[in-house]
Amino acid sequence: MFSLPSARTLLAACRPSTWTSSPFGPALSSPSMVFARGRHQLAPRSVKFIKRHKGVLPVPVGGSIKGTTLAFGDWGIRVKGNGARITAKQLKSADDALKRKLKPIKGAKVYMRVFPDIPVCIKGNETRMGKGKGSFEYWATRVAPGRVIFELGGAPIREELAREALRLACAKLPTLMEFIDRKAPPRLGNLLITPELSADVNPQQTIAAS
Q1: Which pLDDT tens digit goes with each residue over 5-36?
Q2: How high is the pLDDT of residue 16?
Q3: From CA 137, how far away is CA 155, in angstroms rounded?
Q4: Fewer CB within 10 A of the terminal residue: the chain, N end or C end?
Q5: Do 67 and 111 touch, CB atoms closer than 8 A?
Q6: 101-117: buried (b, 16+ CB within 10 Å) or exposed (e) per residue?
Q7: How far apart are CA 73 and CA 70, in angstroms?
Q8: Residue 147 has pLDDT above 80, yes or no
């Protein structure tokens, strides 16, 4: 055995080396403790807690029609079937399909009206109960019936091209969608909110005039 000359040398031998330790401390030295967002990844920039309750799909029972009509573009798609939980990967695939189809049109823009900010945690198959929540897996968002998902605008786009591009995007999403334009009425769940006709207006004359 070798002998240490002094107590100061003993303390230096027991202390971890400053060259091998991380400058951010032991909490951030391991990669598992750091969440980094990719450049082209749909994810929040920062979250306070990486794990969250599962939650339920929103149901518009209060009568609100916010987010069911177009706000930025001329064409769009909204949820026609039941509400669903859409993952960031599905939204990114639909967004890439739209941009790929509209690439020849100069100035065309794709507006995404939802954003995946809900962390989804999954436990492995055939795992025993207990021992805490599963690990983080992906980001997702919950959409209610009638919610607008994508809009197309920024440049004049023919209806045929818009329908074809949005049809490709609908194939990437997990629920039933419908094609809408600026004249589409708002939707409350599965009910279309149409403007009421006054009592002195004949509906038959209105239909014939249109």
Answers
A1: 554 554 454 444 444 444 444 444 444 444 55
A2: 47
A3: 37
A4: N
A5: no
A6: bbeebeebbbbbbbebe
A7: 6
A8: yes
